[in-house]
Amino acid sequence: MLLGWSLHLSAQTSYEDLVRQAFDALAKDSLTQAEGLFRQAMQENPSHRSNYILFRYLGRIKEQQGRDEEALENYTSGLNLNTQDTDLRLDRAALLYRMGNEARALSDYTDVLDIEPENIEALQMRAHIYALRHDNKRARQDYEAILRREPLNEKAYIGLILLNDNDNRPREAMEQINSLIAVYPKHAVLYAIRGGMEQRRRQYELAQRDLTQAIEIEPTNPDFYVSRATLFLEMRKKKLARLDTQMAIKYGADPKEMASLLK
Fold first, then answer.
1. How far is residue 206 from each of residues 22, 81, 160, 201, measured CA to CA in Å?
2. Rounded CA gap, 153 and 203, in Å?
3. What is the pTM of this model?
4. pLDDT value for 17
5. Which DSSP symbol is given to 234?
């Protein structure tokens, strides 16, 4: 009896030591070493109650290594051990979305919300996927659920504004973006969004003003130069558009894409 307890205690200590060493390796960005230690720990104690957490870290390591399919396998293995772990499910959902599997990602986000109905990350991403699928009613419900809990949640507010603008609610969308800018007057992306909305309404001078404001706030953001270049092209100001594409390239935009834009 005592011998059996001693062996169990020794195995437990070895498991914890291996996990500790694995986290130390992660802290030093030694991903391969960390992976080996995590797997060694699970071999040491295959039935340890914390193994699902180790699978989560293995999944993250594989993602960092660009091995998405293996990352997916590890997340799934972890969830097979603990179906109620929302962190694991959120990691798998995010990976599935990045891999282009919106249907499975949507299922995972819904499973998270069955467990935690007010999980902001799951609501945000599920709303986004619904919007991509033109399921505007459900997307709106999720965005509004976030805003009931966090009335100034900028990301959810932006999602709802863009949804309304694409869902034949242009006046409501414009009122909302104006209100959001009043709350966050230094957030460049909001001016860029409003500029895009004004461009679609052919309010070119207003659009130019807002996109210029976005650039003044974040002068090294290439996306804003691309947006203004697109506006200038629509305004038949190709010289100004060319200058903006050059600035976009300077700050990281793809030269081939910019050349294509100007054709």
1. 55, 55, 22, 10
2. 28
3. 0.85
4. 87
5. H
Read off the amino acid at residue 11: A
Q: Cα(99)–Cα(29) distance, rounded to whole angstroms?
A: 24
Q: Any idea which residue has 């959120």 for tokens?
A: 90
What's phi and psi for 164, nearest 5 deg?
Answer: -65, -40
Q: What's the CA dihedral at 193, 194, 195, 201 to 10 degrees? A: 120
User: Cα–Cα distances in Å, from 263 out to 179, 229, 241?
Assistant: 37, 12, 11
In the chain, the amino acid numbered 120 is I
Per-residue pLDDT reduced to its tens digit, 111-137: 999 999 999 999 999 999 999 999 999
pLDDT single digits (tens) 141-190: 999 999 999 998 999 999 999 999 999 999 999 999 999 999 999 999 99
| Nearest CA among 189, 190, 198 for reference residue 231 | 198
Q: Which among 64, 123, 121 is positioned nearest to 87, based on CA atoms?
A: 121
**Angstrom distances, CA of residue 41 to CA of 34, 38, 60:** 11, 5, 17
- Nearest CA to 211 among 227, 233, 230? 227
Within a 13 Å sphere around the CA of 202, how many CA atoms are in the beta-carbon half? 1
Q: Helices 120-132 and 154-166 meet at what angle, rounded to 10?
A: 20
Closest CA to 71 of 53, 92, 48: 92
Closest CA relative to residue 140, chosen from 116, 114, 168: 168
Q: Are 88 and 73 in contact (CB under 8 A)?
A: no
Quickly tell me which residue has 């034949």 as its tokens. 168
Nearest to 166 by CA among 147, 144, 139: 139
Quote the CA–CA distance of 127 and 129 in Å, as a whole number: 5
